Amino acid sequence: KGGDSLRCIKKIFRGLAGAAAVVSLGVFTAVGLANREIPTRFQVTAGKDFQLESPGISVSTYFSNELTAAASSPAGNGYQAKVMLFNAIPVKTVDVSVVREMQVIPCGTPFGIKMFTNGVMVVGISDIQSDGAIVNPASKAGLKVGDIIVSVNGEEMNQNEQVAAAIEKSFGKPVSVTVKRDNVLLDTVLEPVKSDVDSSYKGGLWVRDSTAGIGTVTFYNPTNGAFAGLGHGICDIDTAEIMPLGSGDIVPVTISGVVKGEKGKAGELRGYFSSDVPVGSLQANVEAGVYGTLNSSPVNREALKVAMKQEVKTGPAKVLTTVDGGEPRYYDIQIESVNYKNHAMSKNLVVCVTDPELLAKTGGIVQGMSGSPIIQDGMLVGAVTHVFVNDPTKGYGIFAENMMSVSQSVCMQAALAS
Any residues with CB less than 8 A from the CB of 257 and at least 6 apart, and which? Predict the structure, then answer.
């Protein structure tokens, strides 16, 4: 009997040890996940304490009395905060910057874009029949789709016609070409050939110097006239590369119809430029959207606070958008997930359209709605950026904080350049 009792006790201890190992593994996994998902840098507005809710993970923040005082101090200060798991296990220390509260006017209005590139983008490379043979001068020169042609024989290139003229007047002699690839300037030599088709000299290049389209204005800043829109960069339709901005105008747009989205096929807002007279200008086309200035606010609406990313949470929200020729309207959506990672400039949110009226009109998110502001708890928290092609009721969004940061940077660069 004593031996049986001893064996029983040993089994209990082995069971407890196994359970402890499982718990330890779970804790280590949770700590690793939290450490990976939680950024190392945050911002809070002056007078606000730093709080964080990470989806699926119980996270608390602890401050010493000194740090608590720092949290309520004026903008310009910074401090560190310790993030804890289950109120007990340290995960990481994060840097917190105290910034002044920013308020902007959420718009949700459509706008037209007329954009000209800085340089000329290579969107295709083709073979040429010359002297009875098939040759490819561009490929031989090492040029690739997505390259930006900056100059030919030292002459700056900003229009398709300039490239064609430079190649034609070479009469087959080699020309020096400077291109930008991955933000690095590269020099090469292109040897044009005479086409058997029309007897002109060609380089085997398809190029593009401009684009046009419609999107949605996310916000207007009444303090400096700055605007932000789209929430994603304007990319070339052939290369999917962000087009380098040379200059661009913002023009008024009227929405004339909607092609509803369906599984496997994105819908779109259809509209037309209602005037060729610019109402603003573009200053940047980057991953986080398009930025510039407008002559005036597109809407008569009160300004809202720009939420910091840690203030955005899963749950009900509203999207402000225009899907017909009228004024922008609020529609119900659900924020399904939030991605706090440092490197994620866009695709920070996954949202789902729940409003029956918007679903009936558009099927969910459609092209042209990119930039539509997302409002939650009376704050501008983000903007719609992409639709899920296989489920048009869902899509991605970008943090308003990220767009505000880019807008401030663009304004600063414009001020320094002026």
Answer: 269, 270, 271
**Catalytic residue IDs:** 232, 355, 370
Closest CA to 386 of 259, 217, 229, 232: 232
Q: d(Cα 66, Cα 57) in Å, to the nearest integer?
A: 27
d(CA 324, CA 113): 18
Distance CA 165, CA 203 (A): 11
Name every residue whose Cβ is closer than 8 Å to that of residue 176 and which is 6 or more positions away in sequence: 152, 153, 154, 187, 188, 189, 190
Tokens matching residue 193: 């050939």
DSSP E strands: which ranges in 28-161? 41-45, 59-62, 78-85, 89-99, 103-125, 128-130, 133-135, 148-152, 155-156
Distance CA 200, CA 338 (A): 56
pLDDT by residue (tens digit) across 51-110? Answer: 776 644 445 555 544 444 444 555 567 778 888 776 667 777 888 888 889 999 999 999
**CA-CA distance, 195 to 89, in Å (whole number)?**
72
Instruction: Write out pLDDT tens, residues 335-369.
Output: 999 988 756 678 899 999 999 999 999 999 999 99
Nearest in space to 291 (alpha carbons), one of 373, 368, 234: 234
DSSP letter assigned to residue 115: E
Give the number of other Cβ atoms within 10 Å of residue 362's Cβ: 26
The pLDDT of residue 150 is 94
Token pair for residue 124? 């295709």
- Phi, psi torsion values for 9, nearest 5 degrees: -65, -40
CB atoms within 10 A of CB 198: 7
Identify whether the C-beta of residue 267 lies closer than 8 Å to the C-beta of residue 388: no
Closest CA to 318 of 334, 304, 303: 334
Is the pLDDT reported for residue 173 higher than 70? yes
Contact assessment for residue 381 and residue 311, using Cβ atoms and an 8 Å cutoff: yes
Q: Which pTM was predicted? A: 0.82
